Automatic annotation (TrEMBL):
Keywords: Endonuclease, Hydrolase, Nuclease. One of its GO terms (molecular function) is endonuclease activity. It comes from the Bacteria. This is HNH endonuclease.
C-alpha cells in the first residue's frame, strides 16, 4: 500500500483489513444463485466464514445480498459486535454451530 491509500474496512465488522491478514471476496449474490460476475465485497476471512456458516446461499441471494442486510441478521450482528473487539488479524474457528438446513 502506498502513501495516501486507505486500508479497506470489512463491511461486516468495520475493522480495517491490512494486506497481511487473511481476507476474501464475498459475492453479495452467490455465484450459484446468479451472482457470477456480480458485486463483491472484501471481508476478513473469519467474517466471510461466519456469513456462510449462518446463511444458506438461497438466503444470501434472496434476503442478505447487501452489507447492510448482512449486518441486520441477528447471528451476524452478534458476531460482528464480538469480533469488532479483536485485532484485525484475529483468527479463530467460527463460533457457534453451522447453519440449520
Amino acid at each position: 500500500m502506498t502513501q495516501g491509500e486507505t486500508v479497506p474496512h470489512c463491511p461486516l465488522c468495520h475493522r480495517p483489513i491490512p494486506e497481511d491478514v487473511p481476507q476474501s471476496l464475498h459475492h453479495l449474490i452467490p455465484k450459484l444463485r446468479g451472482g457470477k460476475g456480480g458485486p463483491t465485497v472484501l471481508m476478513h476471512h473469519i467474517c466471510h466464514r461466519e456469513v456462510h456458516a449462518a446463511l444458506t446461499e438461497t438466503e444470501l441471494a434472496r434476503h442478505y445480498n447487501t452489507p447492510e442486510a448482512l449486518r441486520s441478521h441477528p447471528r451476524l450482528a452478534k458476531f460482528a459486535a464480538w469480533v469488532a473487539k479483536r485485532p484485525p488479524g484475529f483468527r479463530s474457528k467460527v463460533p457457534g454451530g453451522t447453519r440449520k438446513c
